[in-house]
Amino acid sequence: MRLLPEARNSRFLAVVLLLIVALVVYAVGVHWWFVSPHLAITDQMQDLGEQQQRFRQMAGQRAAIEKRLAEVRTFEQNNQSFLADADANSAFSDITQRLKQAIGARVKDENRCSIVSNSNFKGGEEELYQRVTIQVRMRCDLEPIAGIFYDLENGNPYLFVEQMMIYRQQGGYVPPGTKLAPTALDIRFNLSGYLRKPGKGS
User: pTM to 2 decimals?
Assistant: First the structure.
């Protein structure tokens, strides 16, 4: 006996409903409670395995890293770019002395170049290392001052000439008690160096 169309449709609909119910039961009763947590644990285990691998690689490089750090510390201790002074007060005197040495090396006649005044300067922006600065006023001929600045900025420790201003003396006036020639220039600048100490900006 042939099934009627209605019977065939009813059987097909029943099969579809059964499949839907099975999928819902799987999703709610199996996948949600068993499969999904298992997949999450698998992902976590994979991440932990990758982290463990990275840690092993880092641990294997420990000796090389420690050696490199020791080399950096040795280089830093032997680095002559910094002022050797322990504090800013002694560094002020050291910078002043280096300025006088540079003048003495370039100028044999005091009438051509001399320090008029110098003072400690504690302003300015905070930096990675502690900066020490003196404000200098000199009267000097143009020719020797260029060599003096070259020696200061190309020696060790590193010194920096900044905020330089040069004025030509008017009328050839020479202040009483000075040995400078009337043609000397009025030169004002900041001379700075760095201590091997962290600054407040670090």
Answer: 0.56
What angle do the packed helices 142-153 and 88-106 form, to 10 degrees? Answer: 130
**Residues in contact with 119: Cβ distance below 8 Å, sequence separation at least 6, in sequence order:** 134, 135
CB atoms inside a 10 Å sphere around CB 144: 18
Torsion of CA 165, 170, 173, 176, to 10 degrees: -40
20-47 pLDDT, tens digit each: 766 766 566 655 556 566 667 777 788 8
Of 146, 144, 139, 141, the closest CA to residue 175 belongs to 139
Q: In what order do the strands lie in the sheet with 129-140?
A: 113-121, 129-140, 185-198, 160-168
The CA distance from 149 to 155, in Å, is 10
Residue 72 structure tokens: 């950096």
Is 104:131 a contact under the CB 8 Å cutoff? no
Share of the chain residues as helix, strand and coil, in percent rounded to the nearest 5: 50, 20, 25
Q: Is residue 86 pLDDT above 80, yes or no?
A: no
The whole-angstrom separation of Cα 53 and Cα 108 is 69
Amino acid at 100: K
Residue 138 CB contacts under 8 Å (≥ 6 apart), including other chains: 113, 114, 115, 116, 145, 186, 187, 188
**Residue 193 parent element (H or E):** strand 185-198
CB 91 within 8 A of CB 132: yes
